[in-house]
Specification:
With 184 residues, the chain is of the alpha/beta class. Helices cover 43% and strands 17% of the residues. The protein contains 7 helices and 7 strands, in the order E-H-E-H-E-H-E-H-E-H-E-H-E-H. It has a 7-stranded parallel sheet, with helices on both faces. Strand 3, helix 3 and strand 4 form a beta-alpha-beta unit.
């Protein structure tokens, strides 16, 4: 079975680093090269750019929408339906969508980000999913190191990279190690 990887990041990218679209596309291409399933919040910005890159190589992408229907997704939330192959309409608004989406994943990649990205990171951290952070992309991604220095309990698997290829490879390595420990 293919690993399911969430790309979490800012829907609006004005505060992200220069070249954020190209960086995200490369992350998406790397995920596709590893034959993984890409999961995002079915939104604009970082998740959208990653999906565009992913589709260049091929594979199945799944968007998790905060809306209850395609109509609400497009008209109320003003979110795209393409290039996602499958859209799951959670009807859970952004907070609930974030939790459902993150729990569906084997691992999470954080690129740039805002408060929603922080929520997805914290969810992944608390449910003990491995999280890769692409440093130097701005926003939430560049603040996570200072957040996780505090006290924590249980499993902790957060790592940092500055290159998309290294980030994806490291996340997949962590997922494989974790799955081998639980008997696949």
């Amino acid at each position: 079975m293919a690993y399911k990887i969430v790309v979490s990041g800012a829907a609006k990218t004005e505060h992200c680093c220069k070249g954020i679209e190209g960086i995200c596309r490369e992350v998406g291409r790397e995920i596709a090269r590893h034959k993984c399933v890409l999961i995002t919040g079915g939104t604009t910005g970082v998740p959208y750019f990653a999906t565009l890159g992913f589709k260049e190589v091929g594979g199945i992408s799944i968007g998790f929408s905060p809306a209850i229907s395609e109509t609400a997704h497009v008209k109320t939330y003003k979110l795209p339906t393409k290039p996602f192959d499958v859209m799951v309409y959670t009807g859970a608004d952004y907070t609930g969508r974030n939790m459902i989406m993150t729990k569906a994943a084997d691992g999470v990649l954080v690129i740039c980000g805002r408060m929603g990205t922080l929520h997805e990171f914290v969810t992944a951290f608390e449910i003990q999913r491995p999280v890769g952070v692409l440093e130097g992309t701005g926003g939430t991604a560049d603040k996570i190191k200072s957040i996780v220095k505090g006290p924590y309990r249980g499993y902790r698997r957060v790592f940092y990279e500055t290159e998309p290829k290294a980030l994806v490879e490291r996340l997949i390595k962590h997922i494989k190690e974790r799955k081998s420990k639980v008997g696949k």
